[in-house]
Amino acid sequence: MKLEHVLPTAADTRALGRELAELLRAGDLVVLVGPLGAGKTALTQGIGDGLGVREPVTSPTFVIARVHRTERLPLVHVDAYRLGSMADVDDLDLDVTVADSVTVVEWGQGLVEQLADEHLEVRLERRDDDVRTAELVPHGPGWKERLDS
């Protein structure tokens, strides 16, 4: 899979999420990094679609974490924007679900990486022309291998 993607539309961002879903397995942590409006939720919607989530995937800003059950793997979607510390992350008990689920965290950089030995960081940007870009940054040899194949 390419490490850098140009995403002209939200549909393209969701399509990248569906592609990523094909690589995901239980225990995976995906950390989404980028400013407001960069496409974090759209990417998660695509991941959810690829995993078989049937209900709408919306930003869990006010509930902080939402679990979507699927036949393949549960998707735990977290919005860490309002979390200020590792203690706040610990209070969510994400470590209880991470081994059996795919955990996607918006705004989680610097807060959630300790939940898994390896993780995929997706750096999303929104250019001045409203086109989004995504850079896939593997952390750990397993992710590097999956993205290379």
CATH homologous superfamily name?
A: P-loop containing nucleotide triphosphate hydrolases
Which outline best applies? globular
User: What class would the helix/strand composition place it in?
Assistant: alpha/beta
Poorly predicted ranges (pLDDT <50, ≥5 residues)? none
- What is the annotated CATH architecture? 3-Layer(aba) Sandwich
What's the CATH first level?
Alpha Beta
Instruction: Please name the CATH topology.
Output: Rossmann fold
Q: Strand order, biggest sheet?
A: 1-7-6-2-5-4-3
Q: Termini, distance in Å?
A: 7 Å
Fraction of residues in β-strands: 25-35%
> Gyration radius, to the nearest Å?
14 Å
Largest sheet: 7 strands, mixed
Structure annotation, total helices: 5
- How much helicity do the residues have? 25-40%
Helix and strand layout, with pairings?
Layout: E1 4-7, H1 10-23, E2 29-33, H2 40-51, E3 65-68, E4 75-79, H3 86-91, H4 94-97, E5 102-106, E6 119-126, E7 132-139, H5 141-148
Parallel strand pairs: 2-5, 2-6, 4-5
Antiparallel strand pairs: 1-7, 3-4, 6-7
Helix pairs in contact: 1-2
Explain what you see:
This protein has about 150 residues and is α/β, with parallel strands linked by helices. The protein has one domain (about 5-140): Rossmann fold (3-Layer(aba) Sandwich), CATH 3.40.50.300. It has helices at about 10-25, 40-50, 85-90, 95, 140-149; strands spanning about 5, 30-35, 65-70, 75-80, 100-105, 120-125, 130-140. β6 (about 120-125) and β7 form a beta hairpin. α1 (about 10-25) crosses α2 (about 40-50).
